[in-house]
Amino acid sequence: MAILELQGITKTFGGIKALDDVAIEVKENTLLGIIGPNGSGKTTLVNTVSGFIKPDQGKVLFRGKETTGFPPYRVANMGIGRTFQMVKPFSHLPAFKNLIVPLSSRRVRSQAGGGYGDKDAIALDVLEEVGFERDSSVPYKTASVLPHGYLKRLELARLMAMKADLYILDELFSGLSIAEVTSIIPIIQKILKEGKTVIMVEHRLKELFRIADKVIVLNFGKKIKEGLPKEIMEDEEVRRAYLGVEV
Amino acid sequence: MKEHARRERIDRGIKARSDDVYALLSYREMLYLIFPRVVPVVGLAILAYFLPLYWKKVVIQACIFAMLSISWDFLSSCGMLSLGQALFFGIGSYIAGSLNHFFNIPVFLTIPIATLVGGLFSTILLLPVIRLRGIYFAMVTLILPLMLMRMIEATKILGGTEGITSLSPLPNIWVEIVLSMGGMWFVLFSLRRFISSDYGLIFVSIRDNDRAAMASGINIYSFKAQALFIGSSVCAFCGAFLTHAYMFTGMPVFALDYSILPIAASAIGGIGTLAGSLVGALILVPLSEYLREFSTLRIVFYGLILVICVVALPEGIFHYASRKYTQIERWVKVE
Q1: Cβ neighbours of residue A125 under 8 Å, at least 6 residues apart?
Q2: Among the four residues A2, A116, B40, B75, which has the most C-beta atoms within 10 Å?
């Protein structure tokens, strides 16, 4: 069964169709890549699924239940976690205290049987998984002074702390070096191994095609292609969308 | 060649240990922690004891304004920029005054009732705009007390322009001092502890980034309403207290002073620490009384001092002082 289903999603911003009748089905425990040129509606799609934008038309179904129009925190508590393209840490808090926020969500509390437990210890465990060295001072530093690479990892850690079932990663790799990307890929593969589902919106096609099970191409708010990474790479229409048409 | 140097700041060993873990290693370290808390509490109490009656009243007023400032700082720490402390203050004042005047409820009941009901009423009043952020929320809080003021003027309810006079006073000056000063310290220490707890962190996270907080499964509107209740209850207490201290409530309780002075106090004391707001209020209120000698020029000197404070110490007095207290500074040569 599909974990996430989008049916005919349409969203216009002042006459511009950001999304035009988009239908997507995401199978459980797979990695779906979403690519497309700038302004093709990728982030609008993420915002629609995570409840930050209400679509004009269409339905979002998560595990068969409709979530269209739910506020973001309700969507999050159902198990849909999303990162932000522009990193959004809680900049006044130390890195590990950033995770206290998702650890206080209704979802985590109900799974832990109502009790809070030692949240600091859990937060440090999660941070270690995404590559914050436990014995260094990094997890204790204020988020505003952390380098970009760590902030991206912190975004990922936020979803892990929330125990999300569906990870929506909005350009997680943007602004990262090849070495940093190579070190994050195993974390994503581990998430998949735990039975979770991942949607990646990416511009770093090479890295994405290496790990994706399926890729969807958006252009001008329309889904123009869907298929295996290999098929997408060789597709003429996709090339044209990315590189433009020769005159 | 000119030698270059830069200032290096190092946390004192004790500070580094005491940030999270209680430092109970030696009397020296315990003293280091207790000293900055006990000295102001005891010092202010002794000061209030020996001051003449007029200045005792000033201390009481300073404590009340300190609470308003702490409340403003608390709300801003939770991402709600309020320009209307007068709204919460006035609501508390009118509730206490009306209960006392129309229903003959004694003082020791009107103040607690006004605190809770005032907080609840203010929260409900602002609930429809809780989704607004930043300056939009501020505009609503600024306009509401002015609207309430004109409504009372136009409809002549609750005493109209005359206000409600000859309310029951508080028993004596000592009760006033204990209630205002005790209330102030209670509000400061409990809110400081609250905001650094795991539950309080969520409020700060909403200010830092409300979208990320929502994406983390936090119902930010419920948390904002809770913060609003806490903040406005504190102000409502101040309103109820001053109503009985002055034995009067009327339209002036919605005056802009009660909204603006707390912000000025927080700005010169240091925003975001709660303690800074208290320091600011304890400086500004007596200063404003002292400047009465200059009659019309009072506001000029007052404004001048404000400007000097903000320009010379933009981080605020408390941030500056706590940095000096917890860090060692030294000059290091730079090649």
Answers
A1: none
A2: B75
Tell me which residue range forms the domain holding A100: 2-243
- Interface confidence, given as ipTM, is 0.88
Total of domains in chain A: 1
As given in the structure block, the two tokens for residue A106 are 């209704």
DSSP letter, residue B169? P
Structure tokens at A154: 């912190």
DSSP per residue, A44-112: HHHHHHTTSS--SEEEEEETTEE-TT--HHHHHHHTEEE--SS----TTSBHHHHTHHHHTSHHHHHHT
Which stretch of A47-51, B5-9, B109-113 has the lowest confidence by average pLDDT?
B5-9
B216, B271, B274: best to mutate for the A interface, most A CBs within 10 A: B216
**For position B63, which CATH number holds?**
1.10.3470
Residue B80, Cβ density class (10 Å: 0-12 exposed, 13-18 middle, ≥19 buried): buried
Selection from A48, A93, A40 nearest residue A67 by Cα? A48
pLDDT digits (tens, 9 = 90+) for A17-32: 899 889 999 999 999 9
A214 to B76, B117, B183: CA distances (angstroms): 46, 57, 62
CA B323 – CA A81 distance, rounded (Å): 39
pTM attached to this predicted model? 0.89
Burial state string for B272-294 with b = 16 or more CB within 10 A and e = fewer than 16: bbbbbbbbbbbbbbeebbebeee
Q: Which residues of B touch A105 (CB under 8 A)?
A: 216-218
Into how many domains does chain B fold? Answer: 1
B205 CB neighbours in chain A (<8 A) are: 90, 93, 98, 101
Q: How many residues does chain A have?
A: 247
Most confident of B143-157, B231-245, B306-320: B231-245
Determine contact: B205 vs chain A, CB below 8 A: yes
Q: For residues A239 and A242, give the distance between their C-alpha atoms in angstroms, rounded to a whole number.
A: 5
Residue B128: beta bridge partners? none
**Token code pair at residue A213:** 């099970």
Residue A225: which CATH number?
3.40.50.300
Apex A84 CA angle, A53 and A87, nearest 5: 140
pLDDT digits (tens, 9 = 90+) for A17-76: 899 889 999 999 999 999 988 888 899 999 999 999 999 999 999 998 999 989 999 999
Helix intervals (H) in chain A = 42-49, 72-78, 95-98, 100-103, 106-111, 119-129, 148-161, 178-193, 205-211, 229-234, 236-243
Inter-chain CB proximity A107 and B217 less than 8 Å:
yes
User: B198 vs A119: CB contact, 8 Å cut-off?
Assistant: yes
